[in-house]
Design goal:
about 230 residues, alpha/beta, D-Maltodextrin-Binding Protein, domain 2, 2 domains, 5-stranded mixed β-sheet, 4-stranded mixed β-sheet, globular
């Protein structure tokens, strides 16, 4: 169910300072969110082509990982950060943790996705943030799934929804912004008060919400997830 169409933009970014590379023991540390994944084949090709060893540092959900990068900017934990989206973009740029980099691949990227004219952030992907529901759960109970964000506060959906914390999660922040767009300010505050009263579950990040609480993907009890 797509009740909101907030578009996310994942960005590849470079930190201000990194580790010193020397000789044949060069290591490139990539900091990212917990759900980041890349095939071993791609890693091997990159390491061979660039004579470098990759090390991946997963640091929580997107917002939590970015917060760590900002807090440690004077002594960076990594050379590269992957996973800033347009929702967290201003926070990253205001913190001044990234160096500009004009990639030779920029010509292959749609200009509409180039949100930072200084190229401190390089777009690599985009997609929708949606509300997903467990088809089997609703069909076996003869309950119609919600068709609008406003439905989530109805008694029929009490205790069925899990969302992510907007302070630490990229999808969580996107959902919060979507509610502001839908209900306005201060109308969104009233929506969230009613959503809380309707027993919404808030998790730290998408990994726990989807793989830990969403009934269609885990042993969880919540059939609606952002």
């Amino acid at each position: 169910m797509k009740t909101m169409k907030t578009v996310l933009l994942s960005l590849l970014t470079l930190t201000l300072a990194g580790q010193v590379w020397a000789g044949s023991n060069r290591e490139l540390v990539i900091m990212s969110h917990d759900s980041f994944n890349i095939s071993e084949g791609v890693v091997e090709v990159f390491e061979t082509a660039n004579n470098v060893k990759l090390r991946f540092l997963k640091a929580g959900d997107a917002g939590a990982a970015l917060n760590q990068a900002i807090l440690t900017k004077n002594n960076p934990m990594a050379d590269v950060f992957f996973g800033v989206d347009n929702a967290f973009m201003s926070r990253a740029l205001d913190a001044g943790i990234f160096e500009p980099y004009a990639s030779p691949m920029l010509g292959n990227i749609d200009d509409a996705l180039k949100l930072d004219p200084e190229f401190r952030l390089i777009p690599v992907d985009f997609g929708d943030v949606c509300l997903n529901y467990d088809i089997k759960w609703f069909s076996t109970r003869g309950i119609m799934p919600p068709t609008d964000i406003a439905d989530l506060i109805k008694p029929a959906y009490k205790g069925l929804t899990v969302v992510e914390d907007p302070a630490t999660s990229s999808p969580g922040l996107a959902f919060l912004l979507a509610t502001i767009g839908r209900f306005g300010d201060p109308g969104y505050l009233d929506f969230w008060e009613k959503l809380k009263a309707n027993d919404v579950l808030v998790t730290n990040g998408w990994e726990d919400a989807y793989w830990g609480q969403f009934s269609a993907a885990s042993e969880g009890k919540r059939p609606i997830v952002v």
